[in-house]
What we know:
alpha/beta; four-stranded mixed sheet; 27 helices; globular; signal; hydrolase; Alpha-N-acetylglucosaminidase
Amino acid sequence: MSKLFNQSIVLLLLAVNFAYSQADLAASKALIKRIIPQKAQYFEVANIPQENGKDVFEIESKSGKIILKGSSGVSIASALNHYLNEYCHCQITWNGTNLQLPKILPVLKTKVHKNTSFEYRYYLNYCTFNYSMSWWDWKRWEKEIDWMALHGINMPLAITGEEYTWYEVYKEMGFSDNDLASFFSGPAYFSWFWMGNLDGWGGPLPISWMKNHKNLQTKILARQRSLGMTPVLPAFTGHVPSAFKEHFPKAKLKATNWTNGFADTYILDSEDPLFAEIGKKFLQKQTQLFGTNHFYSADTFNENEPPTDDPAFLSKLSTRVYEGMKQADPKAVWVMQGWLFYSDRKFWKEPQIKALLDAVPNDKMLLLDLATEIEPVWKRTQAYYGKPWIWNMLHNFGGNVNLFGRIEGVVNGPIQALNSPNKGDLKGIGLTMEAIEQNPVLYELTMRHVWENTPLDLDKWLDTYILNRYGKLTPKTQEVWQILKKTAYNGKDIRDGAESIITGRPTFDSTTIWTRTRLNYLPKDLLPAWKLMVESIGDCGKNDGFQYDLIDISRQVLANYALPLQKKWVTAYRQKDLANFKKYSQEYIELIEDLDQLLATRKDFMLGPWIASARDQGTNPAEKALYEQNARDLITLWGDANSPLHEYANRQWSGLLNDFYKPRWQQFFNKVALALEKDEKMDTEAFEKEIRQWEWKWVTSQKNFPTQSINQVNAVAQSLYKKYYTKVYSVYE
Length: 733
C-alpha cells in the first residue's frame, strides 16, 4: 500500500511538472512567433534544469532547427536574443531594431551553454511607470514584456492597477467615492501618489481608468508569470486618504509634505493597530485580484525624513511594516529601494540604516542599490549589513532627452561587485531608471552581464553592438563610438545628462534649476562623431538603429550649440546692442525650429504620440481632456503654475519645441527688445509671473499633434549638417 502510494505521488509530481513545462514552452513559442514570425518554424524549445539554483540556457543546431533550451521562459527568450545578437547580427532595442535575418539561419558547430551568477534580474522604478509608461496599452506592454524576457529580466516591478486595489479596500472600509476623489491622483502622477508624496493632483481619477487598468494588470501579470518571471507587487507603507481622520478620529496620523508645491499627505503611524490591519487587508485584496509571488515593494520614506533619527524608533517601525506584510502572507519578502540612503545621506548614517534593516530577517528583505553606477551604497553599508541586494543602473532622471551614461562604470561595475570579497549577499542585477526609450547602448550593455561572469572587453562589445545595430561595421562608425565613449558616455563630473538651455524657462543665465546645461565633455569634441555619422549615411543610412543614432547625435550637437548662441544675445543685451540682439535671438528661434524639424523625422522624439496615447485612454471627451492635461503637465510644469518642479521632466520633442519652448522664448525676446528700445532694464520678475500663466494656459489647452514622422531622416540630417557644422565648429574655436 505504501509503495503504491509513493508511486502515485511521484506520478502526480511528474504530471504537475510536465503540465508546467508545457505551459512554459507554449509561452516561449508564442514569444518567438511575435519576435520573428517569418522564421519561427525553424526554432524549437525545451526545458533544462537550473544550475545551483540559478537560470541557464543552451543553444544548438539539430536536424535543420535551432534548439533553444532554458530553465525558464526568460532563459529561453535570452537564448533567442543571444542567437540573434551573436550569430545573426540582429538587435532589438526601444530605439531601433534590426531583424534582417539571413535567409539560411546560421548553424552552430558546437553547443552554447550559458549560466548566470545573478538569481534576480530586476526591472523598473516607480517613476518609470509615469515618465515613460503612463499611457501604455496592452499592445505596448506586450512588446515590453518580450523585451524584458529577451534581456534576461525575471523580476519586474508590477504596480499597474494598484489604485483599483486601494479603491476596493477603502470602499469595503466604508469610504465613499467623494472621500476618495481627493486621494487618487491623475494617471501621470501615480508614481508619487503610490510613494505617498502627493494626493489628488491631476484628478479626479475616473473609475473607468481603475477598471481598465485592473484588467490590464491581469494581462501583464499573466504574461510575466507564463515566462517564469517573479513580479514584485506593492505593499502598504502608511499613506492614507485625508478623509481617514473622519472615519477613524482616534487614528495616529502624521501630516507630511514633499516640499515640491503639493499639499500635505497623511501617514498612518505604524504603532497604530490599524496599520497592520490595513496592510493585511490590502495584500489580501491584491492577492484575490492578482495573485502573488510573495515579493512586495514598500518604501516608507521616499524623499521624506522620519520624525526622529533614533535607531530604536526606526527598528520598531521597520519591524511593524514587515509584520504587516507577514500577517497577510507568511512568505512575504520586503523589496526596498535604497534611494533614501543615497538621496538623504545626512540623515541615513550607519546606525539609522542598520537599525532599519536589522529589524527584518535577512531572508525576508531584498535591497535595491538603486543607482549603483552613480554611487554604490553597498560599499559604505557593509553590503547592506547582510541583506540580499541587487546592483542596479539608474541612469536617467525625469525622461530628459540627452546622450549620456557611465559606460565604463556599467561595463566594469557589476562584475567587480560580483568578484568582490566584500559583496555580501549580492543576488542580482537590474535597471531602475526613471524613464526608458533612450540611450539603448547603456541598457544593452548592462543586461549583457546577466549571462557573463568575467569582465567584458568594451571595445570588442561595442564593435558587435555597431554591427548588430547598423548592419555593418565600418572604420567610421567604429570611430564614432570611440568618440561617444570618451565624451557623452564618459560618465564624469555630472550625475545625469545635461539638457539644452532651450528647454529652460527663458533666462539670461546659462542654466536653470531643472535645466542643467553642464556637460561632461567639451562640446567641440562631439563634432567629429556628427561628421562621421553624416559621412556614413551611404553605408548605413537604411538601417533603423543608425537612423536613430544619426538624429540623436545631430540633436545633441545642436542642443549644445544653443548655449554659446545664447551667450551672443545675452552679450548684445548687456551692451545695449539692439541690432545684434535681434540678430542672435532670431538665430536662436531658428535653431529651435530646425531642431523641431530634425526630431519630427523619428517617432521616438515626437510629442504627438505621447498626447494621442493619453487621449486614447479616455472613454469620453471629459476623460480625454483630463488625460491630455496630465500628459502636457508632467513634461512641462510638473504641477500648477507656481510649481518648483517645472522642467524637471523636460523633453526635446518635436511639437513641444515649436509649440511650447519657441513661443515662450519669443515672448521673452519681445520683452527684452522692448526694454532695449526704451533703454530700460528687462523686468525678469514681471516676465516670470506672466509666463507662468501662459504656461498653465498651454497645459490646460487641447490640440492634435502629428503622430507619424516625416520619414526624411537622412535628408534632414544632411541638410542641417550643411547649415550648422561650420557655425558650430567656429564657435568652439
